[in-house]
Design goal:
By secondary structure, the chain is mainly beta. The chain has a single domain, classed as monomeric porin ompg (Porin, Beta Barrel), CATH 2.40.160. It is 8% helix and 60% strand. The protein has two helices and 14 strands. It has a twelve-stranded antiparallel barrel. Strand 5 and strand 6 form a beta hairpin.
Length: 288
């Protein structure tokens, strides 16, 4: 694992009542992004054998959807990151999120540390576990401030197809769980000594527990009243299709693509529909 925040492709929702939807989903969006990976960079670094690198990346999304849902604000978001990683599997770094319309624009700073490794004769199997700490600019957003993650994946010998399952425990003032299943294909369109161009479609399923407010109408003194009752459910949150084109030029990596979300509407949730956005990311790594 080298590039841990590349594009916002997975989404979790943890409702503690719909009134907290935005704050909760912002945390979940970041958690999922931390678990992202750049397969081209990872595969090329594995060929180097022993290495220590510093990777600097910047990710841009044309629109912002939390858990694949439109929150009624048309805005872009940017996620810068710096990561130190070694061939032994250790990684650590800092990242953040900037939103075009939210105030303050710089929403959160994240510190993370972890360990990830590919094992087996052909490096077909890989695992990752890590911890992340969130430092929000707004105290009311700090419902969740920590995450513990564990992932296990398998891929073919030439890494052109694979799948991975990741479990995350998100905690702070509240707690939540998410499970993400990701399946990808990797097609190398062109390859030379210093340039690799690849197409990497990916399909993600995000399942999570959440507490939602279910409303019902009751009569009180012959007058109708709406009563809200909390209900905990475990369900599919979002299905996501990624269609990215990746270019690697020596130590530079570029990616441009389209992300389509298919959120699953929960009981009492209205106006949920498929949403898409464009993404661009770039990174450069220094090899020591």
């Amino acid at each position: 694992m080298v590039k841990y925040i590349s594009f916002s492709f997975l989404f979790l929702i943890f409702f503690n009542g719909f009134s907290q939807e935005t704050e909760n989903e912002k945390v979940d969006e970041i958690v999922d992004a931390i678990l992202a990976e750049n397969l081209i960079l990872e595969n090329e670094l594995e060929k180097l054998g022993s290495f220590k690198i510093i990777n600097i990346s910047l990710d841009y999304n044309s629109n912002t959807y939390f858990s694949g849902r439109d929150i009624g604000v048309d805005q872009y978001n940017i996620a810068p990151q710096i990561t130190y990683a070694t061939s032994g599997g250790f990684y650590t770094g800092l990242a953040g999120n900037y939103y075009g319309e939210f105030e303050p624009h710089w929403d959160v700073t994240i510190g993370f540390i972890g360990f990830g490794k590919s094992v087996g004769k052909h490096k077909n199997f890989n695992y990752q576990f890590g911890y992340s700490k969130f430092f929000f600019n707004e105290k009311e957003d700090a419902i969740y401030s920590n995450t513990l993650d564990f992932g296990f994946g398998v891929k073919t010998n030439n890494a052109d197809f694979g799948t991975k399952v990741t479990a995350s425990y998100i905690f702070g003032d509240e707690k939540a769980f998410q499970f993400v299943s990701s399946t990808f294909g990797l097609v190398k369109i062109a390859k030379s000594k210093s340039v690799i161009i690849s197409f990497k479609p990916q399909l993600n399923f995000i399942v999570a527990n959440q507490i939602i407010d279910i409303w019902r109408i009751v009569l009180i003194r012959d007058l109708p009243r709406i009563i809200y009752e909390p209900k905990e459910v475990f369900d599919l949150v979002n299905t996501q299709l990624l269609i990215p084109l990746e270019v690697s030029i020596k130590n530079f990596q570029f990616e441009i693509g389209y992300i389509q979300n298919f959120p699953n509407a929960f009981e009492g949730e209205n106006n949920v529909s498929a949403k898409g956005l464009f993404n661009f990311s770039t990174s450069y790594y220094f090899n020591f």
